[in-house]
Amino acid sequence: MAGPGRNLAPVATPLSASTPPFSFSSASVRHPPRPRPSPTPAAMAGVWKLGRSLRQPELHRLVLALIIFCLVSMALLAYYVSSSPKIKEAPPLPLSDCGAGSAVAAAGMAGAPRAPLFLPPRAGRRPAGKAADVPRTDPTVLVFVESTYSQLGQEIVAVLESSRFRYRTEIAPGKGDMPTLAGHDRGRYALVVYENILKYVNLDSWNRDLLDKYCVEYGVGILGFFKATENSLHNAQLKGFPLLLNSNLALQDYRINSAAPLLYITRPNLVDPGPLPGDDWTGFQSNHSTYEPVLLAISQSSEPPGQQGAMHSTVIQDLGLLDGIHRVFFGNNLSFWLHKLIFVDSIAYLTGRRLCLPMERYLLVDVDDIFVGKEGTRMKVTDVEALLSTQNKLRSLVPNFTFNLGFSGKFYYTGTDAEDRGDDMLLRHRKQFWWFPHMWSHMQPHLFHNVTVLAEQMRLNKLFAQEHGIPTDMGYAVAPHHSGVYPVHTQLYEAWKSVWGIRVTSTEEYPHLRPRTLPPRLHPQRRPDIAQTNLDKSIRGGELFLTVLLNPVSIFMTHLSNYGNDRLGLYTFESLVKFVQCWTNLRLQTLPPVQLAEKYFQIFPEERDPLWQNPCHDKRHKDIWSKEKTCDRLPKFLVIGPQKTGTTALHAFLSLHPAITSSFPNPSTFEEVQFFNSPNYHRGIDWYMDFFPFPSNVSTDFIFEKSANYFDTEGTPRRAGALLPRAKILAVLVNPADRAYSWYQHQRSHLDPAALNHTFHQVMTAGPSSSREVLALRRRSLAPGAYATHLERWLRHYPPSQLLVVDGALLRSNPAAVMDGVQKFLGVTPHFNYTQALIYDEGKGFWCQKLDGGRAKCLGKSKGRKYPDMAPETRAYLTGYFREVNMDLLRLLSRLGQALPGWLREELQSGRWS
Ligand SMILES: [Zn+2]
């Protein structure tokens, strides 16, 4: 019973833009799934409350282990059915064999000439592409697009993103300006893609040379598209290549050259009969043996006499016999589905199968809303028989195929008499299906804030299952409308765990729709014939096909009415499976949800770690987020550290500002929140938001958080960038030598034996034979001081305009001036006069808050501690030690156009002459 609110469309598996590279073959072997302890109901209670027990981080991990894979939906069907009268027509017959194209195409084929299908194979090929032993390039694709918004560019990126391949886009320069391709004897890109091949062939000789040398040296291939325009010459040579282009052709009968070495997923031996869309196709022609046709078609009869029936090669691969560079050229864009398939194979081929998904495709079909549904749209006995018979047929094609039924027991026996008999028939055959709980009354969990209410609803459904012998141990559930799954509604997870022992769930929303640019939506149609035409398009190379092509694991969400009212669900999956098996070598199979999740995490181990995004930045997320939650409880800026640079003083000064509010301290430590860099992250954003006050009426209020460890912890910028992409970032930097010394003193005052028993000089100059404790202390003293490295990591997730480097030495000596700059950077109003708010405390030697009556209120005595000056020889040692990284910082700040801290200037000057 999916209402209009369930505005879902088939989509590909989500992934993060900064997903680390992966190699499919190793990922599935070397990463055993993490053991999943099973929580007891008692242990789950209060999981999301503020720090209460030591076991909590572990429990939080469990809670989040629930968040799982993509869910691919078939809302078209559901929506169509629920908003239209009952269909009287007989269910359509699924695709039966590989030869038949669409009805229109088949008619167009009658009597059409057939050219020979295959070219003779040539000797001396490397069919698997160039497999290097140790890759010398990063597994990243460099994509030269025409503009940020060019359509083909977006389609290229969508395929890469769906496949979770790392990529970088650059606007193809008219001339010059090739980005840096290699460094430290390592190539940055494994493949170069040109949206417009002409940008490649027209490169000036210097840049072309640079690119060619790079491709040869690192074994990198080139992939390019030629899209004809009205102005394209009908016949032209591709500049610099023995290759002729015939443009603006009208073609038909597309076929695959089975001898093309790049074929991998694509299964040849087929003709897609009928005319190709458009009359702007380009064919490549060459006599040189380096070129091998990949896709071929013949001229339509509308072409001039003499041209009719001629064979054209619209995708061609260059085997590198001329200059050692492998290339694939497309004589059109990616609009035609077969081009997407060949594009995926080309990427695999040109990267020696480094950028390539495994051949296995796991499918699961969820049938939500069992027993839910209006009278007249539910399953009758004959529908259940059809479901069973289709399941059996599918099992011969897809090992283990089993429909996964999601039930809401409250609606059992609420149909017509014939439908009630259908309910009984389903239950009689319950052992032949898998089952999962939907929600007893099909309610949306995110609207309920009381765990008890949710748990009670679940208990009723479980009782129903037990009464009717429905298995209750699948460990999987999906909430109606994805409600509460993501963005996470913690109460739902708590109730799921306590009542059902749920271990995995699925949603299409996590961490957001992927790719972001969806192909055009299929709109609900009132006419069944139109609905089915759209569905056919989706199956025959459209969205449904691409979903399977680009995702190793797909879960399809369908609804009861797709099996009762119109049986389009049966039609869809039988046809889809057949189409996939006709055109690809993909191996399809089904697994129960928990095993499927394990498989998913084997393939994408990096996704075990959740990534929270801001629900308010995505309308779809906001719609299924609790109305009681607000993104105004997330910080507008972060003070990220590092430690011992004066961040506490900055925090105190900021807090004096009337429009700036800090987070509450962590109640368990009375100190920093430490969300992004610690296991606290697994407690979720509700936990994090509890550290911030409910927003006042003043929308200009700035709330912020300071955790000094954020600066130099590896995964923090990515997490912060996902949740707070618009936040501003403040880093406070002092001379890293002074920072190291301060850290050492800090450790002394905390009675670290390594610090107590060794002088600072001993620690700094400790060699590899020193004790572990001393080396650890040395590392913690020195590592954060590589400022540029850490800042670069932040800059991968934040634009430079959102980052401010604060001179920590100046903050100490002249805080009012620094705070003026900080206020300007934040854009906070009103302007606060720190000259009047601060007073210099002679005794402390610090600027402190000026109280009424002129007294000073300073930070606690642990702050601004006094200790002896650093020994000159240690300072000299550290000046040398940090020279390189300080130079890096100089370069970085110059690039960003930020002021150089005084200490950096001095340090580099003294360094130069010492
Ligand atoms: Zn539902």
Description:
By secondary structure, the chain is α/β, with parallel strands linked by helices. 35% of the residues lie in helices and 15% in strands. The protein is built from 33 helices and 28 strands. Strand 14 and strand 15 form a beta hairpin. Helix 10 runs parallel beside helix 11 (417-428) and helix 27 (787-795) runs parallel beside helix 32 (883-896). The longest helix is centred in the middle third of the chain and has 17 residues, at 381-397. The relative contact order is 0.10. The structure holds zinc ion (ZN).
Number of H- or I-type helical stretches:
33
Distance between the termini: 77 Å
Q: What proportion of the residues form beta strands (DSSP E)?
A: 5-15%
Largest sheet: 9 strands, mixed
The radius of gyration computed from the alpha-carbon positions, rounded to a whole number of angstroms, is 32 Å
Helix content: 25-40%
Number of beta-strand segments: 28
Regarding quaternary structure, what we see is single chain
Shape: globular
Q: Which stretches of 5+ consecutive residues score pLDDT under 50?
A: 1-88, 100-131, 516-527
| Helix vs. strand class | alpha/beta
- Overall mean pLDDT stands at 83
Cofactors and ligands: zinc ion
Q: In order across it, which strands form the biggest sheet?
A: 3-2-6-7-15-14-13-10-11
